[in-house]
Amino acid sequence: MKATTHAEFIQSRIYFMEYIIQRVFYEKSKEHNRCIDQLTLILDMKHLSLKHMHPSWIPVFSEMMTIMEANYPEFLRICYVINAPPIFGTIFNFIKPLLSKLTQEKIHVLKSDYRATLLQVIDSSKLPACYGGKITDPNGDPQCPSKISWAGPVPASLFRKKLSDDKPSVPKQSEVSEEVKRFTDCGRDLTMVEVGPASRKDISIGMVDVGDEIKWWLSCETHDIAVGVFMKNCITNDEKVTSDPSKSSDTYIEMIPMKRVSSHEKIVQGTLSVENSGVYILVLDNTYSWTKSKRLWYHLSVSLFKEVQNSDQFV
C-alpha cells in the first residue's frame, strides 16, 4: 500500500467494475447484437509470493470481496487461475469464506496444461498467444502488452511518501492538529488521546435528548481505528454517570456499530441524529491491534434540537 490508500484502492476497483458494466458490456452487446453481462476471467499467479501477503492487505481484501459479493454477484461467469504457486492454496483458503458458494464454484485452478482448457471455452482469435491463442502485438510480442497491463513492481516515484522500510512515517503533532483545525474550524476544542495496544477508549458525550445531533471528527497519526457510538441502557434520574464509562458496570446499547475507519489516510467525520434520550459515549477501539498504540485527535459537538431545526431551514 505504498502507492495508494485503502480507500483509493477500493474506489478504483468500484470504478473499474462500473466502467466494464456501463462501457464495455454496452459496446460489446451492441457489437454482437445480444446481451453481454458477464466476464470470463483469467488470473495469472505466476509471480505470486509471500511478499504480496502484507498484513495491510487483509482488511482491503476483506472489504473488496464483501463489496463485490454484495453488488456484483453475477458479474463473473467463470474464473480460471493459472500458474498458481503452492502458496496460492493458503491465500485462497483465506479468501474463500468471503465468497458465496456459487462464486466458489465458478473458480477453477488449472494445472500446467491450462492452454487446452482455455481453448475449449475461449476462441483462439480472442486469446493472447502466450496463453495458447493467436493474438500478438504488431511487433509479434505474444504477451500483448499493448492490450494487457501486466503487473510488476511499483516505481518508487509513485509512492505516496518515502519509506525506508515498511513502517509508515509519523507526522508531527502540530501538522496533524493544523489539518484537523482547518477541516473542523474548531481548533480550540481539539483533544488528543492515545489508545494503547489491545485496548479501547470510551469518550463520554453526556446526556443527549431526542432530536439533538451528535457530530465527531477524527484524525489518527498512523494506522486505522475502530469507532462506534453507544447509549447507556436503563437510565433513571437517581443514577450517576461516571466521567469514564469504561470503568462503570453499566450496560450500553449500540447505536452506531463499531467499524474500522482509515482516519490515518483522511479525516473521518460522523453524525448521529438522536432518536432516544440518554447518556452517549464515543468508543475508540484498538483491541484488534496487539502491538500498536494509536494517537489521534478528535472533536465532539452536540447540536440541540432547536439548532438542528434552524439549520435545516437554510439548507
N-end to C-end Cα span: 39 Å
**Architecture of the largest domain in CATH?**
3-Layer(aba) Sandwich
At the first level of CATH, what is the class of the largest domain?
Alpha Beta
Please count the helical segments: 7
* Low-pLDDT segments, ≥5 res: 162-177, 184-188, 235-247
CATH fold name of the largest domain: Phosphatidylinositol Transfer Protein Sec14p
H/E order of the elements? HEHEHHEHHEEEEEEEEH
What composes the largest sheet?
A: 4 strands, antiparallel
Major sheet strand order? 4-11-6-9
State mean pLDDT (0 to 100 scale). 80
Rg result? 25 Å
Beta content comes to 25-35%
DSSP helix fraction: 25-40%
Number of strands: 11
Structural class comes to alpha+beta
Q: Give the number of domains.
A: 2
CATH superfamily of the largest domain: CRAL-TRIO lipid binding domain
Which term fits the overall shape?
A: elongated
InterPro entries: CRAL-TRIO_dom, CRAL-TRIO_dom_sf, GOLD_dom, GOLD_dom_sf, SEC14/CRAL-TRIO_domain
List keywords for this structure.
4-stranded antiparallel beta sheet; GOLD_dom_sf; single chain; CRAL-TRIO_dom; Phosphatidylinositol Transfer Protein Sec14p; elongated; Jelly Rolls; alpha+beta; 315 residues
List the helices and strands and how they pair.
Elements: H1 6-32, E1 39-44, H2 57-71, E2 76-82, H3 87-95, H4 101-105, E3 107-109, H5 114-121, H6 173-184, E4 191-195, E5 200-208, E6 213-220, E7 225-232, E8 252-261, E9 268-273, E10 278-285, E11 294-303, H7 305-312
Parallel strand pairs: 1-2, 2-3
Antiparallel strand pairs: 4-11, 5-10, 6-9, 6-11, 7-8, 7-10
Helix pairs in contact: 1-2
